[in-house]
Amino acid sequence: xxxxxxxxxxxxxxxxxxxxxxxxxxxxxxxxxxxxxxxxxxxxxxxxxxxxxxxxxxxxxxxxxxxxxxxxxxxxxxxxxxxxxxxxxxxxxxxxxxxxxxxxxxxxxxxxxxxxxxxxxxxxxxxxxxxxxxxxxxxxxxxxxxxxxxxxxxxxxxxxxxxxxxxxxxxxxxxxxxxxxxxxxx
Length: 186
Known about the structure:
This protein is mainly α. The protein contains 8 helices and no strands. The chain has a single domain, classed as Tetratricopeptide repeat domain (Serine Threonine Protein Phosphatase 5, Tetratricopeptide repeat). Helix 3 runs antiparallel to helix 4, helix 5 runs antiparallel to helix 6 and helix 7 runs antiparallel to helix 8. The relative contact order is 0.09. About 10% of the residues have low confidence.
């Protein structure tokens, strides 16, 4: 019973993290669309980003006009930003954070295969990066394929060896994987 309770807590944590990522991306996109230029920033602070700034940041990709009568779903809004993010990644292939964001965005847009392909290539290229291993493992463990679950369990072990501070979190994820695989906790 404790394993099920722990699994539910871990599953909730993963769902909350994923929801938070989606909310941040959507908030970013909505800020991009509205580009509130009428409010003045207090002295000594930076000015808000304008749509022109955002277009420049995302490779001059123009945002679609927002239909206030029939607003677009969040997934459509996210997918319109993917092209710009892909261009940024292509322009700066050494930026691991951008690649991780792109992989997570693919996954949020139900393109798990594209996400896994990018993360596996990134893991091969940067085999000593625990964040890449954790991101790949958390996406792998959302499935039910035993080979992917075993791969996720191994990736958590590798990430823990690289960064011992994440051991407790990695063990919680591994416990969830063991439950999915039908293994008993040691």
